[in-house]
Task: structure prediction
Amino acid sequence: MEIAYWIVGGLLAVFYLYAGGKKITQSQERLLPMMGWVDRVPMPLVRTIGVLEVLGAAGLILPRLTGIAPWLAVAAAAGLVLIQVGGIAVHLSRGEARLIGLNIGLLVAAAAAVWLAF
Result:
């Protein structure tokens, strides 16, 4: 179970560090080709989502690695589940049901991380 957590948690952390980092650092124009939803969401909210994703990635790794407050890994994974629920809702509200495959995959992986972290 421990190895499975590190595989799932590590892959999620890499993904969210990348995606969150892009949301934090890039302009709306640079994000638009890969994240079409940023045209209708205020940039402060996009930046906030990016910060939450980066914090979630850190929360998956650091508490388990250091042994300090390991319950934070469960909270981080649960937070990433909520981010994906929000992402699915945004895509569905925009009529982009065909684009939720990645969101569903990330939601399932984050839910697995919650389970494995227990």
